[in-house]
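Technical note accompanying the year-one report. For the benefit of new consortium partners, we illustrate the data format agreed upon in the data management plan: each record pairs a sequence with a structure-token string. No post-processing was applied to the example shown here.
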Amino acid sequence: MMDSPPAEGQKSPLPNTQFGARPFLAERFQQLQAAAFHHIEVQPLSPVLGALVSGVSLAKPVSNEVLQELIRARLLYRVLFFRDQEITSDQHTAFASRFGAIEEHPFLKNKEDHADVIKFEKSETEVGVENVWHSDVSWREVPSLGSVLCAKEIPPFGGDTMFSDTIAAYACLDDDTKQQLDGLRAINDFTQTFGRQLSEEQLLEMQKMYPAVSHPVVRTIPETGEKGIYVNRFFTRYIEGMSSEKSEKLLEFLYRQMEFPEFQYRFQWQKNSVAFWDNRMVQHYAVNDYWPMGRVMERVTIIGERPI
């Protein structure tokens, strides 16, 4: 990153990302195209992230062989999509639980009789507010591994979800910036989002239960050793050990880095479509362009590990 203007006579540098697909993106595309699976069918959807999986019914128990290939596919493609999956809440939870323990969210509305299924029901009176780039529950001491989201009712158009690859965003930073980020930690907190809907008394009580936590600005994926940016506009408050001005400037730079279209994929929902994304590797943005039409989605979230 440059904190000072270029010397007189020098050309002002532009972020490398603006020049399109660099060697990383070309190599990434080749890596995704070369992957082979034997128990599932996988169709890459972009040069960077996202794949459509077929040959699997999420309504049925997943075999160990299929499970291992889904894990490998998720690590490779970051987010997996499934079409025509008419599943019950029990089947939804059963599928997600194959990948880890299931989280109960303390702030979002769960489905009746299913505490582990979050119901996002948007209508003329309930407007979507998830149209900010974020990763789920980074305010937890142990954030989520991934989220499994199923479309129950969708508008005739609009309501897409966008995903951004934080691994690619980090890989495309210059070496000086990577060195600057090494070892930095940021404070994540639910207060600036979910805290707004609580009374002062409720807020104090929830802050005792879920205090602000420190996570690395760049986290490492244990299974692969890959590194990705791990800050987001929803839940990250500031970088530890920095002045407010420097923290805000660096965070804004990192947010913008993850917002380049080259690192993204936009998914168009159909009824009974399912998205399964790795919260450690991607951020998502629910496009709020369908109001006052309705949209009903159900999500089950898998608990992950403490970020390193």
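Partners are asked to follow this layout when depositing records. Residues 20-303 form a domain with the Double-stranded beta-helix fold (CATH 3.60.130.10).
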